[in-house]
Design a protein that fits this description.
Layout (H helix, E strand, L loop, with lengths): L1 H15 L5 H10 L3 H22 L9 H23 L4 H21 L3 H7 L2 H12 L2 H24 L5 H32 L14 H17 L3 E10 L2 H8 L1 H18 L5 E4 L4 E9 L3 H12 L10 E8 L9 H21 L5 E5 L5
GO molecular function: diguanylate cyclase activity
InterPro entries: Diguanylate_Cyclase, GGDEF_dom, Nucleotide_cyclase, Rev_trsase/Diguanyl_cyclase
Enzyme class: transferase
Length: 373
């Protein structure tokens, strides 16, 4: 029994330590061509909630007071605006957090506005849908905050049926248990599915620790970047090699758990720095490769920004990385295969990275290839 309890405590700690899933899951959606479909689906869901709130105005169980009708209108309009903006502007991590907060507030307003006791509890079921979204796109801490807030709102919604003039405690308790069970089960089943996907990633194109592409995934997905580079007239191709400095020492001194957290930190910073259409991969224990195209005028600002983006003096366990960059502005020549061109660029980036390491690490070294190369 004691060993089982320890196992549960360890499992809980590991779950709470999971990083935010946004970059990882959105990259998975993008690499599998599901980004547009996901944006469309989420927009439809939010607008659908607005339609439900609008229809609720015409129900005897819906909002009746002037204040309730006002807030119902706010929810309806906000749902339509958020749904359309999800299609037009697309999500970012910050917008995604805001989306969760908006949904919780909108559901809360709808719950408070309902005049029917059972309708209030029924509306609380929407909290379960928000929990599913959090499980896939964000972190366990946000999930716990959402679940706590949702349970409080469910209890508030149940007050009239539990303690009001027409109270029915048995019915109220049973309905509260049903809604809370749906809320918790949906959240944790989604988490289990996500964990299973992560486990399956070890045999796919994804690195199971970081969610980035692995070496096989890199070889498959870089073809699209090369094709776009060849097609765009004034484009440059960047291939970046990154290696964490003195990583073996970090593992020996602080342990492999800290080493894994540093790898995750580098992966997240690299993903945040890269353009949305970049291909980012973890190709070794502490080695990363990035390939992306960009306009020639953007080369300088991008190269200047990568060093500060990858390093921070406020890290609990400081680390630095040696960064090597290969830049190519000339197109592939007749008969030059894309796979071979990328391999050559990767070798140049590796050489630049080793030069950064030779100079002491924590540096960025760039090599521009020429047409005669």
């Amino acid at each position: 029994m004691t060993s089982q309890m320890k196992s549960m405590r360890t499992l809980t700690r590991e779950w709470l330590a999971l990083p935010d899933q946004y970059d990882r899951f959105t990259r998975y959606l993008r690499d599998n061509g599901l980004t547009t479909a996901t944006r469309l689906l989420l927009g439809i869901i939010v607008i659908g909630l607005g339609v439900c709130a609008l229809l609720n105005r015409f129900s005897p169980a819906g909002p009746t007071s002037t204040i309730a009708l006002f807030f119902n209108s706010v929810v309806v309009i906000s749902c339509f605006v958020v749904g359309v903006s999800w299609w037009v502007f697309g999500p970012t991590k910050r917008r995604s957090f805001g989306f969760v907060v908006f949904c919780d507030i909108a559901v809360t307003i709808s719950v408070v506005g309902d005049s029917s006791q059972l309708a209030r509890l029924l509306t609380c079921v929407i909290f379960a849908l928000i929990g599913i979204y959090i499980a896939y796109f964000h972190n366990p801490k946000l999930q716990i905050a959402h679940l706590t807030f949702s349970v409080v709102m469910i209890v508030v919604a149940a007050q009239p049926i539990l303690f009001g003039p027409d109270r029915d405690p048995a019915l109220g308790v049973s309905k509260v248990l049903v809604v809370v069970t749906a809320l918790v089960v949906c959240a944790f089943i989604s988490q289990i599915v996500l964990t299973m996907l992560s486990m399956d990633a070890s045999s796919s194109d994804l690195d199971p620790l970081t969610g980035l592409l692995n070496r096989r995934g890199l070889d498959r997905h870089v073809e699209k970047v090369l094709a776009e580079f060849q097609r765009q007239e004034s484009a440059a191709l960047l291939v970046i090699a990154i290696d964490i400095d003195r990583f073996k020492t970090i593992n020996d001194v602080h342990g492999h758990d800290v080493g894994d957290r540093i790898i995750l930190r580098v992966a997240q910073r690299l993903s945040a720095w890269a353009h949305a259409d970049a291909v980012v991969a973890r190709v070794g224990g502490d080695e990363f490769i990035l390939a992306q195209r960009l306009s020639v005028p953007a080369i300088g600002p991008m190269l200047d920004s990568i060093g500060p983006a990858m390093h921070s003096n406020t890290d609990e366990i400081p680390s630095t990385s040696s960064i090597g960059i290969a830049v190519r502005t000339h197109k592939l020549t007749a008969g030059e295969e894309r796979a071979t061109a990328f391999t050559d660029m990767q070798k140049v980036a590796d050489s630049a990275m080793y030069e950064s390491k030779r100079l002491g690490g924590g540096r960025v070294h760039t090599i521009v290839t020429t047409a005669s190369r």
